[in-house]
Amino acid sequence: MEIEVEIHPLKPFLPSNAKLLMLGSFPPQRKRWSMDFYYPNLNNDMWRIVGFLFFNNKDYFLNETKKAFCRDRIIDFLNEKGIALFDTASSIKRLQDNASDKFLEVVQPTDIAALLRQIPICKAIVTTGQKATDTLRQQLEVEEPKVGDFSEFIFEGRAMRLYRMPSSSRAYPLALDKKATAYRIMYQDLGMLI
Questions:
Q1: What are the CA-CA distances from residue 185 to residues 46, 79, 193 (Å)?
Q2: What are the backbone dihedrals phi and psi of residue 90, each rounded to the nearest 5 degrees, phi first?
Q3: What's residue 98's pLDDT?
Q4: Which of 117, 127, 153, 166 could form a disulfide with 142 if both were Cys (CB 3.0 to 4.6 A apart)?
Q5: Are residues 154 and 24 in contact, defined by beta-carbon separation less than 8 angstroms?
Q6: 105-119: buried (b, 16+ CB within 10 Å) or exposed (e) per residue?
């Protein structure tokens, strides 16, 4: 049986003041979404990490029912802080019926350079998993940083950093506070978190 090619269901989120471009690999299947935006799965801790760091409340981005993330609150936060979002794959095949990166085959990688040209004051990219890091490094000449660290590179005359953060997926075996510690360093480096 031929495996279906999935086209990315979301447009890149590129605020004009973006200083950071956050790149995952590809959204989970729609049945796992709690909202129509990035990191929609309630079992993914990205918005809990951000809520914990910026608001001292891991549930800050959950709605009143606690059964979905609040898209509008997230978008307001991203616009205020200057954080852009997309993924390193524009189309994929799921080799198994799950959201695991190791079972994603990238059919069409995202044109990272085209994204960066739309956000001219962006000075850093963060990848949130190994698949995203590997896919990005096939396009940009940048050394792979250790998890929780960064590498410096030049993009079209622009000095930039590539941060490699731990995956926010619960499948990645690291406690939320430990993941948040790694993300805190990046947000502090970029002057987004005091």
A1: 15, 21, 9
A2: -95, -25
A3: 67
A4: 153
A5: no
A6: ebeebbebeebbeeb
- Using DSSP's 3-state secondary structure scheme, residue 84 falls into strand
For the chain, which residues score pLDDT lower than 50?
A: none
Q: What is the pLDDT of residues 18-39, one digit of tens each?
A: 999 999 999 988 999 999 999 9
Rounded to 10 degrees, what is the CA torsion of 117, 112, 187, 66? 110
In angstroms, rounded to a whole number, what is the distance separating the alpha carbons of residues 58 and 76? 17
Cβ(22)–Cβ(126) under 8 Å? yes
- The tokens of 36 are what? 């129509």
One-letter identity of residue 76: D
Ranges of beta strands (E only) in 54-133 are 83-87, 89-94, 104-109, 124-127
Q: Is 7 exposed, middle or buried (0-12, 13-18, 19+ CB in 10 A)?
A: exposed
| Phi, psi angle pair for 29, to nearest 5° | -60, 150
CA distance 19 to 40: 22
Looking only at the bridges linking them, the beta strands covering 83-87 and 20-24 are parallel
∠ CA 45-48-54, nearest 5°, is 140
In angstroms, the CA 69 to CA 80 distance is: 18
Helix (H/G/I), strand (E/B), else coil: 164:
strand
